[in-house]
Write a structure and sequence with these properties.
Mean pLDDT: 76
Low-confidence stretches: 31-40
Shape: elongated
Helix content: 55-70%
Largest sheet: none
Distance between the termini: 58 Å
Number of helices: 3
Order of helices and strands: HHH
Strand content: under 5%
């Protein structure tokens, strides 16, 4: 098969199988409106609520683990007096140190996480305002708006 014949076959096949783009969207409003229940008109909104609640949960967990660490340490106060020869004393001290380390790590992580979650809520709110301003500046023809 000659190169030219091959190119002709490819061209003919391409003409028969044109690709059409289809976007998943609501059907167009026959009245040309951008509002209503079809998703237009700014119905997509960001909520700070989930981020703020998550930050509050991180704060609560930080406080709770800090209190638990303090309570655990207080419960072990005086444990060594009179029990120096017991083999279990060493194991209890090891367990105490392990739990204090773990609870401290959770407390520290929650302390770092709370402000980050609040910052996400603030940043996303600022992005929403910025994007809304940019979208509002676009002139749409045929809608009676921005013309």
């Amino acid at each position: 098969m000659a190169w030219e014949e091959w190119e002709q076959l490819k061209s003919a096949a391409a003409e028969r199988h044109t690709t059409h783009m289809r976007l998943n969207q609501f059907p167009a409003d026959p009245g040309g409106s951008t509002g209503g229940d079809n998703g237009g008109g700014g119905t997509l909104k960001h909520s700070h609520g989930p981020w703020t609640r998550a930050a509050g949960s991180a704060d609560d967990l930080r406080t709770g683990t800090g209190n638990s660490k303090t309570d655990l340490s207080a419960a072990h106060d005086g444990m060594g007096s009179g029990a120096e020869g017991l083999a279990s004393l060493g194991a209890l001290k090891s367990v105490l140190a392990s739990w204090e380390k773990r609870l401290g790590a959770v407390r520290d992580e929650c302390e770092a996480l709370g402000p980050k979650l609040r910052q996400v809520a603030q940043d996303m709110g600022e992005v929403d305002v910025s994007v809304a301003a940019e979208a509002d500046s676009v002139k749409v023809t045929g809608t009676g708006k921005g013309e």
